[in-house]
Write a structure and sequence with these properties.
The chain is mainly α. Helices cover 50% and strands 8% of the residues.
């Protein structure tokens, strides 16, 4: 897969110079490339990433829409803490935990908000 193919797909899928996180992952799956390569290509094209599926960036008027949970299931909290790297939860791990617990991705990020845990790095390289 060439860089030009990747750039063409990003250009075709972006709207007003922006690409949502979900659409970026459609490009990942469609081309069989890494999320980081899609994020880097978008950045190089000055295409902004929007609507993080964890609710952490790219929303208006607030940049971040995720809110803390009232309470975090102990099993979920344990899974999150077990997946920490350098006291942070990688985005990829947050997605895996959401799948394992059959919850929305934003539920995992909301649990992190409650637990005071930062999610980094982003799979697309946005943060």
């Amino acid at each position: 897969m060439s860089d030009e193919t990747l750039k063409k797909m990003i250009a075709n899928r972006s709207v007003n110079g922006a690409l949502s996180c979900a659409t970026a992952f459609e490009v990942v799956r469609g081309l069989g490339v890494s999320p980081g390569s899609v994020g880097a290509a978008a950045d190089g094209m000055n295409v902004h990433l929007l609507a993080c599926q964890l609710g952490l960036f790219g929303y208006k008027p607030e940049k971040k829409v995720v809110k803390p949970l009232d309470a975090v299931d102990p099993a979920l909290a344990s899974a999150i803490r077990s997946a920490l790297e350098n006291d942070r939860l990688p985005c990829r791990s947050a997605w895996e935990i959401a799948e394992r617990f059959h919850v929305e991705k934003m539920t995992v990020s909301a649990a992190c908000e409650t637990l005071g845990i930062k999610i980094r790095p982003c799979q697309l390289g946005a943060f």
